[in-house]
Amino acid sequence: MASGFCEDCSRLLEEFNFHLRKVCREFERKIKPIFRELCECTCFSVSPESSYLRRKRSLSLNDEELQLHEEERLQTLSRLSASEDIELQKTAAMFYLQLSHHLNSPLPDALLEPVMNLLLSSDLDVQKTISLALVNLLVKNTVCRASLVEMGMLVPLLDLIRSGDSSAQSHSCACVCLLASLSREAVMLEGVKPLLALAKSYDPREQQVASWALLHLTHSDWSRGLLGEAGGFPVLVLLLQGSDSEVQFYSCSALCNISSARELHPKLLSIGSHFLLKSLLTLASSSVQKNSMQACRCLRTLSQNDLIREQLMELDCVLPLQSLLKTPSAEWRESAVTLLSALTSHTPNKAVLVSEGLLEEVGQLLLRPTCSSVIITHSCSIITGLSGCSEGQQAVTEARCSSGLLGALLSPSLTDDTLIHLTSCLQNLMTQHPLKSELSVMITSEHVSRLVNLSGRSQNPQLSYNGAAVISRLEVTGETLQLLKPHYVAMLEYLSEFLKNKDLKFQQLGLVTISNLKTDGDFSSLLSGGEVEDQLRTVHDQTEETRRLLQTIQPLSPSPVHPLLPPHKH
After folding, report:
1. What 3-state DSSP class applies to 482?
2. What is the DSSP letter of 241?
């Protein structure tokens, strides 16, 4: 690019620049020794700590650099952490925090020594920073947990829980929880009681921190047992009654984990006057969806116990749960129907559930435009469970449960597992005469097509069997035969597979279906001379052979007890 100067001016400027550089270098050479001597004097000395602080501001951390300069850093961090200057302690704490974000390899144990000094600092900000750094290192698994416990870091961390500062409490609780999986003894002796004391605080923020920490101590068998021994269960139940929704959620989640261990149910139930169940039922009616769902989930886990199922019925749990079935939220409905399904499985509860109108609510639930697999599965369980008694059969008819089930059968998005529950429920209803007649009249061509399609799914034998069983139990009327007629070819295909199946229940189902349809001329024509007829002959021959062999075996008459055999017990 043109400079704008003539050739002479450009030459002169270059010479000027050359001499100027030469003069500057000479000047630097002469004053450098002077500045070196000044720096060596105590008047102008710079402390290692301050020097490190300046270097830290431009520090770029990586694993390789950490290893190359480990000894130098250790010496500097030791001086910073042991200093009485709070600002220098903050510098060391900030270094560890930055390190916790960038480090991807294990932190050398030697670099853990200054951490203890920082945890014991008199400055809360230093403690918060270093405890947060520890959380990051523990989460990333870049620090040896055993080393932290052996160095005694649990003690200052637990003291930090009592600090009253929510951030410090959160960081220290997180550290304690992450270390809990390593050292049972340490947590048993030092960890639980301070957390329980914090949970009893009147400050909602402190309760949040404590309940969150207690939740994370319920993920293993030994820690759940530990909480029980330390008197933690009543504290968690008490927190359900609080006004803070987060505290309620954490404590309910913890109780849900605890209730998964059936051996702990007696201790949970020992909290007087059904206090736990009453608290959970109250929370199930909460306007906070996640709390309501978690309470239902906890009750569902507890209801594996027959005694608890009876106690829930005594507490009039049905009406509030039925109210949840009417909510617009699918998640809410799923939580409620899952719990009600568990209550239905207990025989003494069935009559009460029928009288409370549960089948009516389930029928309405199935008739909704959108019905999830969870709702269909547990609705089928409820209908099957309650239809066994005479009152239940009448209630199923009046509640239009059959319409709901047949509507769900046409849903294209159901999984095979859900379809197995659904067809099993229909099959069960069709073993009861009044319901069989009702379903046979309600069946349409779409339902028949669906059932025939399911019956041909040889890759899922149970679903195939259930679909064919529903068809075999239809009342054989002119209308039914007209619905089945377009599907005779497809039916003969799955009937042939059934007759070849070594499982006798498939063979018997195939024979029943053929027996029902043989009166129809069109079916008999297709059957004649085909593969299914050959299979029938094979089954007949096998049956005759079995009958002949049985005839050769005479019934054994009663005989004296053999002296070498023990007497038969009646």
Report:
1. helix
2. T
DSSP assignment of 291-334: HHHHHHHHHHHHTTSHHHHHHHHHTT-HHHHHHHHTSS-HHHHH
- pLDDT the model gives residue 188: 55
The answer to whether the beta carbons of residues 175 and 135 sit under 8 Å apart is yes
The CA distance from 70 to 499, in Å, is 77
SS3 letters for 501-532? CCCHHHHHHHHHHHHHHCCCHHHHHHHCCCHH
What global pTM score does this model have?
0.71
Write the single-letter amino acid at 505.
K
- The span from the CA of 301 to the CA of 7, in Å, is 94
**428-481 pLDDT, tens digit each:** 999 988 889 999 999 999 999 999 999 999 899 999 999 999 999 999 999 999
Question: Helix 358-366 and helix 401-409: axis angle, to 10°?
Answer: 30
CA-based nearest residue to 387, from 434, 334, 336: 434
Nearest to 503 by CA among 462, 554, 538: 462
Element (H, E) at 114: helix 113-119
Closest CA to 175 of 196, 95, 88, 183: 183
Give the C-alpha separation, 197 to 202, whole Å.
11
Q: Name the residue with tokens 């023990």.
A: 566
The answer to whether the CB of 193 falls within 8 A of the CB of 158 is no
Q: What is the C-alpha separation between 383 and 360, in angstroms, rounded?
A: 10
- Spell out the residues 6+ positions from residue 251 whose beta carbon is closer than 8 angstroms to its own: 211, 214, 215, 236, 237, 239, 240, 242
8 A C-beta contact, residue 484 and residue 519: no
Q: What is the dihedral of CA 425, 429, 430, 432, to 10 degrees?
A: 150
Low-confidence ranges of the chain (pLDDT < 70): 1-4, 32, 35-73, 180-191, 554-570
- Terminal CA-to-CA distance of the chain, rounded, Å? 116
pLDDT in tens, 54-68: 444 433 444 444 543
Cα distances (Å, whole numbers) of residue 326 to 337, 363, 376, 377, 543: 11, 12, 15, 18, 54
Helical axes 330-344 vs 289-302, angle rounded to 10°: 20
